[in-house]
Fold each of these.
Amino acid sequence: MDQLSYSAAWLSRWRDEITGAVNSMMSTFEETYGYEPGTNEVRVAGEEDLRAAHDYGREVLGFEDLLTFYESIGEVVLPDVGNGYFIHSARDVLHRLAEGGAGLRS
């Protein structure tokens, strides 16, 4: 199966589409669920994120798509969408790898 790689342009469009959908959902969230929503965002990568992404790329060889992702997206925090969606920042991933290695934790 051929797999397409991410591109910065594709990730930018994805971020814009998700942000638009979440903003639409948040406009009626409190009315629908009876409480205020939390912070829901797909955060653009900043300078610190870029440094961490490049550090991550040096640590984990062969993950070019993850590097591209983290160069574009700093973090995904969507606690009020479904059961919640989270993609941790590259810095957090590096911290967790340093603490516990690459194995899965329960």
Amino acid sequence: MHAFSINPDATVAGLNFPASDVQSAIQEYLGSDAVDQAVYHPRAVLHIHGNGRNLGLPQNLAAWALASAWRGMSLYPLAGPIVVTGRTERGDVMALDGDLVQHTKAVAQTVRDTFSEWRARPPASNEAAVNELPAYAARDVASPRQ
């Protein structure tokens, strides 16, 4: 089954997991038996290291911005690599639909571009930065880049 990883450096990587045991493969990939499944979009699941923040894994601002855009509000911080899969109406894991793949890639690219711009022109404050990224992500989700 095809899935995607959003990494703390805002890169996205394609993953292929065996359809027979996706959950175990995701646990192995994330390096944790404690994997939280978060639903921020009705057709997607973010698989998050359950102890990532406590272990000091780096913040994942691209996954946070995507989840915030999908939910329509700023959420709590996410840490470590995040695996994104699709979700059936019954809640089973499946491959991510094409439009959600585009959301994932567009938001990650926007976060990378924004970080690059911030090196030359830092945001006025942390609050401004926290508001800026979800606003850009919401734009990408409303009309993803082609």
Amino acid sequence: MPAEAATWHYFVAAAIFALLGAIGHVCRAVFNLLPDRITDRPLLDLPLSSGYNLPDLLFGTEYDDNGYYRLDSLKNFRISVMLSTAGGLLVMLFSPGASGAVAWMIDSGLSALWNLFLYRLHETGLF
């Protein structure tokens, strides 16, 4: 396992974290059975609701009229992607083993994809 990650590892990791944030946004909106907002008062929803928390209050997450997280809100999408990307990169920067582990996973994934490409190319019989 490498001791540290190169700069390009951070760019690839940022793209992966952004993709995970987008997936998290869709999952939160689609698979939410109960509404996040129960009342019209945000401070009362914090202790009562299990889906509404302090980052939702601070960043101004948007909800529909029934209290559900809005899938079609670009603001919600941006908040989810930015928090996921910033959180992942901060963990990589301040945790000594995390950046090396992420770099190893990226390198292993790229190596596996390249080997799969070469195998498929060989199986076609062209080369």
Amino acid sequence: MSVPVPASPADLYRHGLRLLLDKDIPGWVGLWAEGGVMEFPFAPPGWPRRLEGREAVAAYMRPYPEHIDLHDFPEADLRIHETADPRTIVAEMRGVGRLVGPGRPFDMTYIAVVTVEDGKFTSYRDYWNPLAVLETDTDGAEALR
């Protein structure tokens, strides 16, 4: 029996975090609308700033677990804010784990602005600091390009 996917933006976002912790990248990508857009406003030169469409998001995320082993998104650090647009949330969170290659700790704070329509992610602006990974590990940074 399949588990129904949450329809509210906040519930869908939390569901997506659980899929990432389970390393279920196909499941996470399945939460995306066909024409969804993922953006990285702080991406340094040479890194993707915009991924258009579910397939582009899938290609970007597919190798993620091979480079970053997420262990937790601590509930104490997760804040989901509703906006004037009921389809859009702002999420603050912290991802904790390790960089697979060197085995070093991974601890990153994120802010994301996420829009959901018809139970699918349509827009995801990820305001994370790629320089923090660049400073600690070039192998882990390669996974995020």
